[in-house]
Amino acid sequence: MNTNKIRIVAAIAVILVWMGTVMTLIQRDPVVSAQDGKIVADTIAPLLHYQGRLNNPTTGQPVADGSYTMVFRLYTAPSGGAALWTEARDVAVRDGLFSTVLGDVTPLDQSVFNGQTLWLGVKVGSDEEARPRQQLLPVAYALSLVPGATIQGNSNSAALNLSNTGGGAALHAGGPVVIDGDLTVDGAISSPMMPIASGYVEWGGGLITGSGNVSSEWDENAAVYWITIAGHAYDVHDYVTVVTLMSDCPVDRTHVWGEDGKLVVYFYEHDTNGYLRRSNCNFQFITFKQ
């Protein structure tokens, strides 16, 4: 028993020096198809493929064929610390060689692979965990996906394409999003509602300040403000506009309407006889698309 223990521990120490570990995601029962030159696959399971060899340290010969109980652990340090993940499994060994998949007994939490450095510890049978632990190294192209990495292209096509044919989102950002270039949206912007236009209109219809897609004019005959929002055909059923008076105007009522694809704003005030008449005033507005 002691001889066997020394042989296995020493052999593991040897193989961990040269044995490469590649972080490979493996899909169970994969369904893969080609579409427009792209490989499309179903959602993959977070699994790691691991293989190595157990040798007799004295003779250099492979250990006896059989099933060996192995315990695999992931750490954030080369020594010490608590394991982030542990899995025990029986692994078949033949001619000293073994190959196994990690994560199908104890599921791997993908949040562990967030760019932090990880080390793999291996324990065989009743022996202590082999030393040193082995650092997990990603394949070369996976380095472009670690946090802080830059994906840069040099073509007329997008440098990165994301799609999801299911019911979920293709991309979820858990924090602020910074866009240094132009933003093109082919679909609708869903809730929470985002403003599509805003402006500060002076009483004569001129735009004092506002978003770049807005223009305004005062219609003296109809006593209304016509506001054009580029790229949008304003309709009261699809848009919401909030109007705020910006000066001491004797306005009693504010109305918002849509006509000919434009936003129409007009005000009413009481004259000296108590009758309502249309009026003009300085105001701010902000428009949302429902």
Quick tags:
290 residues, 1 helix, disordered N terminus, five-stranded antiparallel sheet, mainly beta, four-stranded antiparallel sheet, 17 strands, rod-shaped, Immunoglobulin-like, 2 domains
CATH architectural category of the largest domain: Sandwich
Task: Provide the low-confidence segments as ranges.
Answer: 1-37
Q: Bin the helical content.
A: under 10%
**Rounded average pLDDT:** 80
Q: What is the CATH class name of the largest domain?
A: Mainly Beta
Radius of gyration: 33 Å
Helix and strand string, N-terminal first?
HEEEEEEEEEEEEEEEEE
Q: What's the short version?
A:
With 290 residues, the protein is mainly β.
Overview of this protein structure:
- The chain is mostly beta strands and 290 residues long.
- It folds into 2 domains: 2-141, Immunoglobulin-like, CATH 2.60.40; 195-289, no CATH class.
- It is built from 1 helix and 17 strands.
- It has one helix spanning 2-18, and strands spanning 32-35, 38-41, 48-53, 66-75, 85-93, 97-102, 119-124, 134-135, 195-201, 207-210, 214-219, 224-229, 239-245, 253-259, 262-270, 276-279, 283-289.
- The radius of gyration is 33 Å and the shape is rod-shaped.
- It starts with a helix and ends with a strand.
